[in-house]
Specification:
The protein contains 13 helices and 2 strands, in the order ααβααααααααααβα. The chain is an all-alpha fold and 291 residues long. It has one domain. The protein has a two-stranded antiparallel sheet with strand order 1-2. α1 packs across α9, α2 packs across α3 and α2 runs parallel beside α9. The protein is globular, with a radius of gyration of 19 Å. It binds zinc ion (2 copies). The site of one zinc ion has 7 residues, from α2 and α4.
Length: 291
């Protein structure tokens, strides 16, 4: 049974289903006819890191979960790059994400995996959601002027970071279209699809060391592509912990960035759940070091 959903949004459907097909055809064609340039790949990686961290460090851990606090510069920076990931404004994203945690695997979970892989992965975005603009669970965010400014100017950020910035930087190396393709379109598709895997694959397959009963699971490969988000078993057990990867060896650039931010005065009050230490130490002969 599908949740209470509205009709299909054709603009979202064409954009989100068409963009992966477009880059799959256009990128090889571009490289064949125009040749390669290392700068295109630098632009792709930089865009993937910045927008991916915008989602995990900003949208997810700071704004949705309040897992730490940050100054205005840090909040504005990650609100910009989170918006550039083209996953809606921080306010809309956080309202849906808080519903996901509060009602996981029920019909009130906007991307419940109980409705199947594709629903949790992308289908839920392709339909209008009657409660999408219900921000009653985000009153705290509505009081943050930076969050509200980002909500208001979301599309300006999307075009600035996804179109004009790649075109401008690409012009410096004589490849405006190539840079738009790599640092704009391709990085958007990669960040989209890997973020979507958290809601689909990471609620279906993987280890569940932190809660065997929950659907949320750890997946190291998804963690690599999402800068640490793939440690989803831990995250659902301790959503307000600033770490997603608990152990020092868990690939989690998100937690490293937040921790580094605290060393230079940008972030503070990083939350760690003591219960996690108890669970981690239970049954272990030695205590693993965490970051
Ligand atoms: Zn989840
Ligand atoms: Zn979360």
């Amino acid at each position: 049974m599908k949740p209470n959903i509205g009709p299909r949004i054709w603009a979202n459907s064409i954009f989100l289903l068409g963009s992966p097909i477009l880059v799959a055809v256009w990128v090889p064609m571009y490289l064949y006819y125009e040749g390669n340039s290392a700068w295109l790949w630098v632009g792709l990686v930089a865009g993937w890191v910045l927008t991916g961290l915008g989602i995990t460090v900003g949208y997810h851990r700071l704004f949705s979960h309040r897992a730490y606090q940050a100054n205005g510069l840090w909040r504005a920076w990650w609100l910009f790059w989170g918006g550039a990931a083209i996953q809606n404004s921080c306010l809309v994203w956080s309202a849906g994400h808080r519903r996901h945690h509060q009602h996981t695997d029920t019909d009130r979970d906007p991307y419940s995996v109980k409705h199947g892989f594709w629903w949790a992965h992308i289908e839920w975005i392709l339909h209008s959601d009657p409660v999408r603009d219900d921000f009653s669970n985000c009153r705290d965010l509505q009081k943050d002027p930076l969050v509200m400014a980002q909500h208001k100017h979301y599309w300006t950020i999307v075009f600035l970071a996804g179109l004009f910035l790649p075109l401008a930087l690409g012009s410096l190396i004589g490849r405006p279209i190539g840079m738009f393709l790599f640092a704009g379109l391709l990085r958007m598709v990669i960040t989209h699809q890997t973020t979507f895997l958290i809601n689909s694959l990471c609620h279906l397959k993987g280890d569940r060391p932190w809660d065997e009963e929950a659907s949320a699971a750890d997946n190291w490969l998804v963690a690599f592509f999402t800068h640490g988000e793939g440690w989803h078993s831990f995250h659902h057990r301790f959503p307000s912990d600033y770490r997603n990867g608990y152990f020092w060896h868990n690939w989690d650039p998100g937690k490293w960035a937040i921790w580094l931010g605290s060393k230079v005065g940008f972030t503070r009050k990083l939350r760690r759940q003591k219960k996690a230490d108890e669970i981690a130490n239970r049954g272990r002969s030695t205590t693993e070091v965490t970051v």
